[in-house]
Design goal:
globular; about 110 residues; single chain; about 70% helix; mainly alpha
Amino acid sequence: MDHRTESCKAKTNREEALDCYCVQEILDSYYACKDDVYKYIRSHALDSQFDDNIQGWHQACDDRLATKTTTITTPPEPTLKTTYDLGACNRLAQSCFSGDYETNLCSKS
């Protein structure tokens, strides 16, 4: 997701940037990320962080796509089947911090 959105942001022409960004693949990646986090922590506690990206995509793209023959689909929201596991949230946070740390080490070498 980040690589694709970053390459879209790098476009110097606004129309090209929107053509790059306003595609099913990017919207799907936002929902997939949200779903992956949900499955890991079994809670909707972090949904708002992903919902901001989804809302931003719709603000940038809905009117633009309405004038085209493109059909964009929105996947269903996952249904909460178990209770929130705070330990899982902490494990997820540690995993993210570790991944970020390792990525930064690779970038510096």
